[in-house]
Amino acid sequence: xxxxxxxxxxxxxxxxxxxxxxxxxxxxxxxxxxxxxxxxxxxxxxxxxxxxxxxxxxxxxxxxxxxxxxxxxxxxxxxxxxxxxxxxxxxxxxxxxxxxxxxxxxxxxxxxxxxxxxxxxxxxxxxxxxxxxxxxxxxxxxxxxxxxxxxxxxxxxxxxxxxxxxxxxxxxxxxxxxxxxxxxxxxxxxxxxxxxxxxxxxxxxxxxxxxxxxxxxxxxxxxxxxxxxxxxxxxxxxxxxxxxxxxxxxx
Amino acid sequence: xxxxxxxxxxxxxxxxxxxxxxxxxxxxxxxxxxxxxxxxxxxxxxxxxxxxxxxxxxxxxxxxxxxxxxxxxxxxxxxxxxxxxxxxxxxxxxxxxxxxxxxxxxxxxxxxxxxxxxxxxxxxxxxxxxxxxxxxxxxxxxxxxxxxxxxxxxxxxxxxxxxxxxxxxxxxxxxxxxxxxxxxxxxxxxxxxxxxxxxxxxxxxxxxxxxxxxxxxxxxxxxxxxxxxxxxxxxxxxxxxxxxxxxxxxxxxxxxxxxxxxxxxxxxxxxxxxxxxxxxxxxxxxxxxxxxxxxxxxxxxxxxxxxxx
Lengths: 251, 309
Known about the structure:
The complex is a heterodimer of chains A (about 250) and B (about 300).
Chain A: E1 2-6, H1 12-21, E2 25-29, E3 40-43, H2 48-57, H3 61-69, E4 74-77, H4 79-84, E5 85-89, E6 102-107, E7 118-123, H5 125-131, E8 136-141, E9 146-150, E10 155-161, H6 172-180, E11 186-193, E12 196-199, H7 210-218, H8 226-232
Parallel strand pairs in A: 1-2, 1-3, 3-4, 4-12, 5-6
Antiparallel strand pairs in A: 6-9, 7-8, 10-11, 11-12
Helix pairs in contact in A: 5-7
Chain B: H1 24-33, E1 38-42, H2 45-54, E2 58-61, H3 66-72, H4 81-90, E3 95-100, H5 104-112, E4 117-121, E5 142-146, H6 149-157, E6 162-165, H7 175-192, H8 199-205, H9 210-219, E7 225-228, H10 235-243, E8 248-251, H11 253-256, H12 261-273, H13 278-284
Parallel strand pairs in B: 1-2, 1-8, 2-3, 3-4, 4-5, 5-6, 6-7, 7-8
């Protein structure tokens, strides 16, 4: 099985490193034709504005949309979640292109700037049911988005109460949200809809590999082995490619 | 912290952390999200918008670009917080800002206005020629410059969550950047092949904390994200830095001192993503207009990189 990781910018090396620990080959995807060689795709964290710009320059959007519509499994973390959403608020002037497919509204940069970034122990009942392990997951939120509302077909895998975030009051986005709703409001941070999985946090930054195994189980086991042979030939002509070295993993 | 009266043994894990609110993993996390990207120097909101449209993964707000600091001289300081706020409002990408080395109050001000990263930079005039800021005291993450492995690890021990090799800012000349990246990477290669018994002496030689040296040996790379900086002016320069093993690139004067900033910025962003594809690099390097005027580094040119150890 070969999993593609969109390698325009961001934490694609980290995703490939986690896949390697699970014994799965991850390949970098930078061009539309490289999508033909992979059975599933991870869209990593990073700056969604930058990734959208680069995807547009290299005409990746039609191929990505087709990939999603073909029903192949796609997982977006953080910036990837924004990419997959049908609607995103809080975009830059002039807006940004999205792949779409996931029936939800995402607030880009919901939790505010870096000073409001945090990590928390997140309960993940559905994932625990599949993969076992402790009932919560160490989730790292970096300038993270959040899902404001979801369509009927979307399964909510995890949410966090807004009161859990200490820096609540200093954040205009959350304040605005609170005005319109009751306090004790929860915000959605992980969803699944058919072949699409999306998380607002970064499972690629921590040692726990359960989200990656959860995603890999969404990939139908199609035997044939053709993809393995094709994928290795794509990186033949490149210079200076180096072996991926892992970062310290925070336990 | 203060007041508890408990003596803790130093060094129980190389990069474990301190303040509850912003653990080191969150500080390093943002830098990891910037990997494979370009961070551009901007001096006002208008330039920040151009940088965002070009595909920069973050912008660095400063008072004057390094080339102007070189040309005009005088003391270079943190830029006006009002200006930084305007830049922050104009764009959705992370905003960094420079503080003078050792000037922890400038860093406190930058933390108070809620920017995403502080660059404790040798490009600005020094505020303290002996001590750097104790970066553990801040919730905001820091990026610091280095010329070699020892300097990088000293900064990380002080709390830096991201490292950039210094190069020579404002010159448009890549030679110093190459020298510094090669020095860091070369030392790491030497370290990786070293017997564990020799690491103690090596740590003494490069004047770096032993635990971080050992961690670097085990990882085979710096334990934080490592960008290149100082002298990048063309897409080829940027791709060179990536092929030498950096995680991304800072571009200072190279973009807004060139003939067509939007076009050159976009080309450099593409070059960092497709750094190992010469065909594409050739395509994007075509017709970019005039590059910034470079400076040849003879003895008369002041070396900003040598301002701090």
